[in-house]
Structure to design on (126 residues):
């Protein structure tokens, strides 16, 4: 199955639809996009890979558009990537994974933490 993300005028993902491989084989990617625009509207549609997260393909294939698209993600044309919504103002975008990262590394001590934006650090959940 192929997956396509419906975009609005700001390149925000509104929904992700599944397209049968036979339809994609018959129409090609551009034909599928035209078909989706005609039938389901939107400003644009972009193909996305269910098997790609953090610029890694889970089946050892070639990563596609950095991340699988989700509702609320942004499609960045310059990076040709789907980027999730920013978690917190202090977090920065990792240009390789196109995921947001905290300014402080998550502790590796087996405990559970939650991000506290007020102190810009991890706080243990007790």
């Amino acid at each position: 199955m192929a997956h396509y993300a419906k975009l609005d005028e700001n390149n925000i993902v509104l929904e992700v639809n599944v397209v049968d491989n036979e339809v994609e084989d018959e129409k090609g990617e551009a034909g599928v996009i035209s078909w989706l625009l005609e039938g389901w509207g939107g400003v644009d549609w972009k193909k996305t890979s269910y098997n790609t997260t953090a610029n890694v393909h889970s089946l050892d294939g070639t990563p596609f558009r950095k991340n699988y698209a989700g509702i609320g993600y942004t499609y960045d044309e310059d990076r040709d990537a789907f980027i999730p919504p920013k978690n917190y103002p202090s977090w920065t975008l990792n240009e390789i994974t196109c995921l947001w990262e905290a300014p402080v590394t998550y502790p590796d001590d087996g405990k559970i933490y939650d991000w506290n934006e007020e102190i810009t650090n991890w706080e243990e959940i007790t």
Summary: The mean pLDDT is 97. Helices lie at 21-40. Residues 113 and 125 are 5 Å apart (CA to CA). The two ends are 43 Å apart (CA to CA).
